[in-house]
Design goal:
The protein has 393 residues and is of the alpha+beta class. Strand 5 and strand 6 form a beta hairpin. It has 2 domains: 128 residues, 2-Layer Sandwich (Phosphorylase Kinase, domain 1), CATH 3.30.200.20; 239 residues, Orthogonal Bundle (Transferase(Phosphotransferase), domain 1), CATH 1.10.510.
């Protein structure tokens, strides 16, 4: 059984496009020789550069926190705004391995993927530098509980759905070997000034040991997007990404997160509610009223049905991303006879709780709890999982 380490683009050889330079190791004041990258449009930043950009990683400049580390908004000396991701200590890679993976990520480019501009490696620091995207992430704007000035019209939502789908088609079917993102969610979809969606963190899993899979138990975070076969048995395939995309699609059309404990119990789980109203023939009730009168209600309901098709319990019943794209574009018909019960979050949670109480399965936890007024206390954990070979995906 092959490990996940084969999932991201080509594997660079140790001598690919690298050159040896001298770097100062401030920990012991000795000059050491390390290998750094020579990649077009990829800049090596010093830790001092990034300290300056973020005002020494000032808490007020922190704009995100995820399983792989913290993200800060920064401004470089030339005035350029950047998003600076400080990777957590869970990554145990050596310098050569880290740089090789950076090279692999730099080879993957698409208009709907966040572009990596540079990196920093000093002592034990591992930092990635991306371009800053003006309109933030979907969880902060469309799904956020605070005030947002963005008017998410139907045209903008459709553009976001199509863009994310295009990015996943590229990762799943155009890059060789195929790429499995494994963490598609609202906080990983960023918007530029024209509301073009950019999938972020598509390469970060590659920078961590293959036996560590970030599984957040945050109510409206990663767990709500996990395909049942992945969450329960660790079976990672492209169909797991498609399940996550289906949940995201429902969130975009309804304007609400996949779980919200403020709602009545029968409405807390979005996927359950969507399936219930689908069976009742009342999907129009789900379309976000804040879209306004410009909404194409028939197209919105069709997108909801596509979301249900992507979230079916059995992976074999979920369409490929290229087929999803054609359905979103109305190039092929959506056969509703193919729709069956989705993999529901509440059933998955019940299964996992029962398993945790009886099986004795252990996992290590990492990270601090975060408080959210909407979703309550949360934790992060790392689970040991195995993965199938790419040919089986």
């Amino acid at each position: 059984m092959a490990k996940f380490a084969c999932c991201f683009g080509r594997v660079a050889s140790p001598t690919d496009d690298v050159h040896r330079v001298s770097a100062n190791n401030k920990g012991n004041n000795n000059d050491i020789s390390i290998e750094l990258l020579d990649v077009d449009n990829m800049r090596l930043y010093t830790y001092k550069d990034l300290q300056f950009a973020t005002e020494d990683f000032k808490p007020e400049n922190k704009i995100g926190q995820g399983g792989f580390g913290s993200v800060y908004k920064g401004q470089l000396k030339d005035g350029k705004l950047v998003a600076i991701k400080v990777l957590g200590t869970e990554s145990r890679q050596g310098l050569r391995e880290f740089l090789t993976e950076i090279m692999v990520i730099s080879d993957i480019a698409h208009e709907n993927l966040v572009k990596l501009h540079g990196y920093c490696v000093e002592r034990d620091h591992r930092i990635l530098v991306y371009g800053f995207l003006k309109n933030g992430s979907l969880d902060q704007t469309l799904l956020g509980s605070g005030h947002c000035d963005i008017k998410f019209t139907w045209e903008i939502r459709r553009k976001i759905c199509m863009g994310v789908a295009k990015g996943l088609v590229y990762l799943h079917e155009e890059v060789q070997p195929h790429v499995i993102h494994r963490d598609i969610k609202a906080s990983n979809i960023l918007l530029d000034e024209d509301f073009t969606p950019k999938i972020s963190d598509f390469g970060l899993a590659k920078l961590f040991p293959s036996h560590l899979t970030h599984v957040s138990t945050r109510i409206a975070g990663t767990q709500g997007y996990l395909a049942p076969e992945y969450a329960i048995r660790g079976q990672l395939t492209r169909k797991a990404d498609i399940y996550s995309f289906g949940v995201l699609l429902l969130e975009i059309i309804t304007g609400r997160p996949n779980q919200n404990k403020r709602l009545p119990i029968e409405e807390q789980y979005l996927l359950e509610r969507v399936w219930e109203l689908y069976r009742e023939g009342d999907l129009e009730k789900l379309v976000d009223i804040s879209i306004g009168e410009d909404v194409d209600i028939n197209e919105a309901c069709r997108y909801i049905k596509i979301g249900l098709l992507c979230t079916q319990s059995l992976p074999k019943n979920r369409p490929s991303m290229s087929k999803v794209m054609k359905m979103l574009n109305d190039e092929i018909d959506l056969d509703e006879t193919d729709l069956s019960d989705p993999g529901l979050l509440s059933e998955l949670t019940t299964f996992k709780n029962g398993k945790n109480n009886t099986s004795g399965t252990s996992s290590s936890t990492s990270g601090k709890q975060e408080d959210s007024p909407m979703f309550g206390n949360t934790t992060s954990s790392f689970a040991t999982m195995s993965f199938t070979a790419i040919n089986d995906r």
